[in-house]
Amino acid sequence: MSTYHVSPNGHLDAAGTESDPWRSLERVSRAELQPGDSVLLQAGATFPGQIDWSNRLTAVGDPNNPVTLGSYGNGRATIASGPASGLLYHGPGGLTVRDLLFRGNPPAFGVSGIDCSGPPGCRNLRFERVEVCGYSKAGINIEAGQQGDVQGVVVDHVHLHHNANGLHAANVVGLTVRDSDGSFNDWPDPNADGDLTWGGYGFVAY
Q: Rg (Cα) of the chain, in Å, rounded?
């Protein structure tokens, strides 16, 4: 198991150690991770862009030995994804996201801060001490692939606000929510005149 560090003071060809960190989310997106690895962003720093693990973890994901995405140092790092999702993950499960702030900027229409989907049998997704705001689908979106369920999702000490919906969980079996809130979640309808909004749910699961 390896731990990789990311800092605005790093560079693309770095080793990923705390003393020689990577610099960008693009480098994180193309990392060749193995089960049990951790990717930690420098607390207090803001990282523009998106982490795209929509294909990267498909082969190496292990629900029993998760990859961790989080922060190191005091506090938490910010992923400022603009109009895109902050994290895309489409894999078999085994993912922990902790101690991060995901921030989108309008018009981030139809996207979620953290967007996770998986094939049948996807399991063990954990979100701990995460804040997500500014997304027009959901703060966290979890959806199963065709003819299957996502199994074993934990949302713990998560703050989801100023999104269309806080948490959207479709075809999830075994969802646990602890000490979390979804507040001020609604979104202007771009097809409506006036102040009509859509969404507005803190937690939606079915």
A: 16
Per-residue model confidence as pLDDT tens digits over 55-100: 755 545 688 899 999 999 999 999 999 999 999 998 888 899 999 9
Placement of tokens 């959207």 in the chain: 168
Which two structure tokens, joined as six digits, stand for 103? Answer: 């921030």
Residue with tokens 């997704």: 125
Q: In sequence order, what are the residues at sequence separation of 6 or more whose Cβ sits closer than 8 angstroms to the Cβ of residue 170?
A: 142, 143, 144, 205, 206
Q: Do 73 and 37 form a contact (C-beta atoms < 8 A)?
A: no
Judge residue 108's burial from the number of C-beta atoms within 10 Å of its C-beta, 0-12 exposed, 13-18 middle, 19 or more buried: buried
How big is the CA angle at 86 (ends 154 and 114), to the nearest 5 degrees?
25
